[in-house]
Amino acid sequence: MRIYQPVLSIIILSITVLMSSCSEQQADVSNVSETEMRAGQMLLSDNCSGCHMASEDGTFSRISHMRKTPEGWDMNIARMMIFHGLEIEPDDRRALVKFLSDTQGLAPSETAAYRDVLERKHNIIEQDVDPDLAAMCARCHSFARVALQRRDRQEWQNLVHMHLGQWASIEYQMLARERDWRADALGPVSEKLGRMFPLKTTDWSDWQATEWKDMSGEWRMVGHLSGQGDMEGMMQVTALGSDKYQTEFMLNENNAILKGTGKSIVHSGYEWRGTAIFADEKVRQIWAASPDGNRMTGRFFRQGHPEEGMEITAWRKIPRSHGIMSIIPSALRVGVPTEITISGVNLSGAVAIAGAVVTVKEASTDRIILMATAEDTTAGQAKVTVGEDTSALAVYAQVDYLKIIPEYGISRVGGGPLAKVKAQFEAVGYSFGPDGLRDTGDDVRLGMVPVTWATDNYNAAAAAMEDAKYAGEITQKGTFIPAAGGPNPCRKYSTNNAGDLKVIATYTDGNRTLTAQAHLIATVQRWNNPPIM
Ligand code: HEC
Ligand code: HEC
Q1: Which of 44, 387, 487, 501 is found 20 to 30 A from 236 (Cα to Cα)?
Q2: How many CB atoms lie within 10 A of CB 517?
Q3: Residue 437 DSSP label
């Protein structure tokens, strides 16, 4: 009997493979035209079929059995070049990333929980990862890198084999004396991943069947730059065909007008990727459109400096939609006349802030600038009304305490071949709220408050090494600029300029002084910076 078992499993395997390729063929890909399908198949056939066998049903071995984000596909092709000597023209590589993301991408709901990593946010500590998977698969790279792929158990197993083959020491690295990494990875882990992140999902098939929207038109934008301030402005989007767009920006950031132009592409019907030039500064965009195509959220960041970025929200300007997008500043101090900018889409009607005297200085459907003085001495949230639209503004008598965001930051030494990675901190003010107590449910977040910044040695070991003296400097905008990389002969043991620091924010109001503290690890370079950490 034994001898027949392998034969039987080969038969079962072939049936499963056949079945899966049949239904892949039937998937609704009406968002991708016949011509685009043929062009994509040609690219795969020209560039990949030397190693990935093409079948008559139009599938390619390995390639057709997984789904990835645009960054996931691009990293995959980069790996084919580095590990396996693939040679591919940059235009073909871009076209393949587009084709694969459109036909084998992830639905908006499938990427929602992992956008921080896609958007290249700095100082993210992943939360709520399944402990087994965290120990097995999220120690060398983020768990997001895993969770942003879809494949069945057998393909997860193939990926484990790739890891074992490429990194022969992986089992030692992964504490193999306490754990049989290979057996766990091929067994329960692949099984679990296949269940959690399978190739076929209704999320993806429904998304493929939904009509993907054209992004052209006029967009209203608001954003926040950590530690620096707020932005509001406009974006004009013009279609260039094939999901490519020309963009024009007119942004108002801390009362400075910034103009920019750029190009963008939309992958998988909602993954907006762009670059734009502002003055001589190149910035990148990694945004996601909402399924109805009328909202976008994501980050703008400096080319080559993902840590320096702005979080944005954009709303399409369409006739029937209206609403308040942001209020700058986000808090009003009792008795202090304050200029306030309300940004939104199709704003109209009477303007009021509960408990405050309001004088409108300037009003358009996009923006209302007013002077407001809050009279009520009760701190809390005041309702803001513009015609039918409402929002809220914090009203406070005084800042009661501060918090620094992030509580734990990372910077990296640099210079030479690899740029320094800065760390940006922001001080957020809070009032105690009606109960007069800190850290209770009724506390009111007041937004960014002006502070002075300083650093100090984190502990005795840091003091002994004089970390605060050598690791770098913090600006009065809360930007920590690390020192140069490499050994420093002035330091004890000629060590490098890494350090363990306290970041201290001090807020002064008359004769009251408030302080808050955060932790900063000023560490060494990261030499390999892939798009998905
Ligand atoms: C020179 C041979 C070669 C070429 C050309 C090649 N590949 Fe691969 N590819 C491999 C090998 C070997 C593996 C298995 C080991 C690995 O994953 O690195 C692989 C694995 C893969 C996988 C599975 C990766 C995973 O996440 O498990 C995908 C997808 C893939 N290749 C896509 C492509 C695409 C797309 C192209 C064409 C642009 C391409 N390959 C061209 C050799 C090649
Ligand atoms: C010892 C370190 C290490 C461990 C442990 C590890 N990985 Fe990786 N993994 C890597 C490296 C390095 C790469 C990047 C290869 C490259 O440069 O593209 C990678 C790449 C990947 C990719 C992207 C592959 C592609 O081509 O799209 C996925 C997905 C992935 N790992 C999943 C896993 C899973 C699942 C586990 C747990 C079973 C795991 N990793 C455990 C080091 C590790």
Answers
A1: 387
A2: 14
A3: -
Q: What is the DSSP string of 131-153?
A: HHHHHHHSSSS-HHHHHTEE--H
pLDDT of residue 176: 66
* Minimum-distance ligand 2 atom for the alpha carbon of 148: 29
The SS3 call for residue 3 is: coil
Residue to mutate, 66, 97, 162, 163, ligand 2, most ligand atoms under 8 Å from C-beta = 163
Residue found by looking up tokens 């235009």 in the block: 91
CATH numbers and ranges of domains, the chain: 4-208 (no CATH), 217-316 (2.40.128.120), 323-396 (2.60.40.10), 401-523 (2.60.40.10)
- Rounded distance between C-alpha atoms, residue 459 and residue 82, angstroms: 43
Residue nearest to atom 23 of ligand 1 (CA): 62
- Which pairs with CB-CB distance under 8 Å and at least 24 residues apart come from 133-141? 133/189, 133/192, 133/193, 135/179, 136/174, 136/181, 136/184, 136/185, 136/189, 137/185, 137/189, 139/174, 140/173, 141/532, 141/533
- Residue in 59, 62, 88, 149 to alter for ligand 1 test, most ligand atoms within 8 A of Cβ: 62
HSE-CB at 152 with a 13 A cutoff on CA atoms is 11
Instruction: Give me the residue label for tokens 């306290």.
Output: 502
**Average pLDDT score over the chain:** 92
HSE, side-chain direction, 13 A CA sphere, residue 196 = 15
Task: Note the helical H segments in 2-107.
Answer: 4-26, 34-47, 70-84, 90-103
Q: What is the DSSP letter of 167?
A: -
If one counts every other C-beta atom within 10 angstroms of the C-beta of residue 3, the result is 6
131 touches ligand 1 (CB under 6 Å): no
Given a cut of 50, whether residue 520 has pLDDT beyond it is yes
Question: Which amino acid, residue 248?
Answer: E
Please state whether the peptide bond connecting residue 131 to the residue before it is cis, i.e. omega within 30 degrees of 0: no
Question: Which pLDDT score is estimated for 379?
Answer: 66
What does the pLDDT look like over 71-104, one tens digit per residue? 999 999 999 999 999 999 999 999 999 999 999 9
The sign one gets for the Cα dihedral 82, 86, 88, 94 is negative
The label of the residue with tokens 């069947």 reads: 209
- Rounded CA-CA distance 286/271 in Å is 8
pLDDT-based confidence at 170, cuts 50/70/90?
confident
Does 37 score more than 80 pLDDT?
yes
Distance from C-alpha of 239 to C-alpha of 419, rounded to nearest angstrom: 35
CA-proximal residue: ligand 1, atom 20 (nearest)? 62
Report CA(512)–ligand 1 centroid distance (Å). 63
Among 487, 513, 286, 502, CA closest to 402: 513
pLDDT tier for residue 179 given thresholds of 50, 70 and 90: confident
Nearest CA among 242, 234, 243 for reference residue 215 = 243
